[in-house]
Amino acid sequence: MPLPTITCPICGAKISHALSHQDFTCAFCHFEHCTPTGSRDQVIPDVINLSQLLNIKRVSTVYIENGQAMPEDGPALNFCSLAPDDRQVEAIWADRVLPFQENLNQFFQEKYHQLVPGGLLYLSTPVKGYFRNPAPLPGQINFFKAKNIMFLLEQHGFKMAWRQNRFASTLKIIARRC
After folding, report:
1. CA–CA dist 92, 64 (Å, integer)
2. Do 61 and 114 meet the contact criterion of CB atoms below 8 Å apart?
3. CA 145 – CA 150 distance, rounded (Å)
4. What pLDDT is attached to residue 42?
5. Which string of b and e fits 38-52 if b means at least 16 CB within 10 Å?
6. Which helix H or strand E contains 150, and what residues bound it?
7. CATH of domain 42-125+147-177
8. Which residues in 151-165 are b (16+ Cβ under 10 Å) and which e?
9. 27 band by pLDDT with thresholds 50, 70 and 90
10. pLDDT of 46-80, one tens digit each?
11. What is the DSSP letter of 120?
């Protein structure tokens, strides 16, 4: 009996040696998907002061991805909760949501349709590297390398506008919708 085949959500490679749809590692792009451990609610949000950067880009309202706490930022920005049917949004804050997404392609397609052309998407996610292997977040199912995120962004119509220290264990990116 042949083993089930899974398609990698990052590069599209067929993975035939996966024993379940929950646990697999892509041999080509090294993306990992596994069974969650713990609860996502235990994750402490990573809040950085983006008000100066977003003010330069002339963004006044930032929409927060569902289930996240509102950042305590300066008075220059207005933070609102993002509803799935919101459209024509100029900025979306998605802090550490990628490790928990079941369907990455659907997530990026949804954000693409919610943003106006030129809109900004802030992402942060723990990433693996040659000398760093961060501990899994509670409930985390997706494990990325920096190139996985860049490939997903370009594949779904985004271009990187800003990136914080590429050698850190948490990748922080602001991507612009093309």
Report:
1. 6
2. no
3. 9
4. 42
5. eebeebeeeeeebbe
6. helix 146-155
7. 3.40.50.150
8. bbbeebbbeebbeee
9. confident
10. 444 455 556 556 676 777 776 555 555 444 556 67
11. E
Rounded average pLDDT over 29-48: 63
- Other residues' Cβ atoms within 10 Å of the Cβ of residue 10: 23
Residues in the chain: 178
Question: Which two tokens mark 25?
Answer: 């590692």
**Both tokens of residue 120?**
């900004």
Q: How far apart are CA 27 and CA 48, in angstroms?
A: 34
pLDDT, one tens digit per residue, over 92-122 is 888 889 999 999 999 999 999 999 999 999 9
For residue 97, the Cα-to-chain-centroid distance in whole angstroms is 5
- Domain coordinates of the chain in residue numbers? 42-125+147-177
| Whether 100 contacts 41, CB under 8 Å | no
Two tokens at 164? 């914080």
